[in-house]
Amino acid sequence: MKVLTHKRTDKLDSEFISQLALNNMIHSSRVFSKDHRNFRSYVRLRLTLVQKRTDLKNEAHSILSSEMFNLKDVLTDIFGKNGRLILSGILSGKTVDEIIKSLSPKFQKKNSQIRDILDREISQNTAIRLNICLKLIGHLDAEIKTLEEEILNYAYENHKREMEILMSVPGIGEISAAILIAEIENFKDFSSGDKLASWLGIVPNVYQSADKFYNGRITKRGSKVARWILTQIAQAASRKKNSKMKEFFNRKKKSIGHSKSIIALARKITTIIWHLIINDEMYEDDTGYKKEAIQKRRISENVIISIDERIKIISGIFAIVEKKDNENT
Fold first, then answer.
1. Which of 54, 68, 80, 233 is the most buried (most CB within 10 A)?
2. What is the pLDDT, as a whole number, of residue 117?
3. Are residues 94 and 168 in the same domain?
4. Is the entire prediction scored with pTM above 0.85?
5. Is residue 301, in this structure, part of any structural domain at all?
6. Which domain holds residue 204?
7. In this structure, are residues 195 and 316 in contact, taking their beta carbons and an 8 Å threshold?
8. Where are the beta strands (DSSP E) in the chain?
9. Structure confidence by residue, pLDDT tens digits, 141-160
């Protein structure tokens, strides 16, 4: 429309847009239903909480490093089961022997390494800060789990077939499949996989000068949540042994590098999932790769919040705000 208009005023623009609409020259926007918008709001809130949890975990790493508690040298994830046993043991004042005894047999073999790390005192200041971080991480874990139950409930109830197809693709699990459905919804709205990739902003900008074409960075026009999850999926798919995805990634990596190859693989996955869902097919890999069965989570029934409970929640929020205002005054 910008190309066809001349004098730019609100009145002229509204008249011109009305003429185009009357002649069916404007494509309708993709407006999701209210239920699907609520579903998508769960997905986006979960992403926000995951980012907050990551910030707290990084802060905990920093606190431990300042006291020379380099647990990451022994544990791949200090917030896993054994990592949390060690951290809770430190904060509760347990002895080194008691902490080691509570660990799984696999980690008890690293007795000497763990003993070297834990054989030092932790300051009160560090213990308080670390305890606060761990409590907040635990609280966020519980809230994220609640959101994931709501997300998977809706996804399996309304998009069960799409979930099965998406989870057959390397690198896609339950949550990532639900996020893609939340951000894209109806794949049939797009005439091709390339159109879907363009809508998600995962295609490069193209510049033309005379008869020469130049490719720039990706457009980033669509949902940043969808681009983020596609990048995570591509990262996981690039590590799958004996798969076409890894072969494609390794081939691209030689010429354009690691980062650009991940984006190229994400675009390829986008076109693949569009084709699979449109044709109602499961992903098959003729290179010998077979995806392990995903253990589906046990989904609980949705908890319906009554009107009285909603009023209590809202009144509680107002009470907190009023209390803060009084403290400030």
1. 233
2. 77
3. no
4. no
5. no
6. 160-278
7. no
8. 204-209, 212-218
9. 999 999 999 999 999 999 99
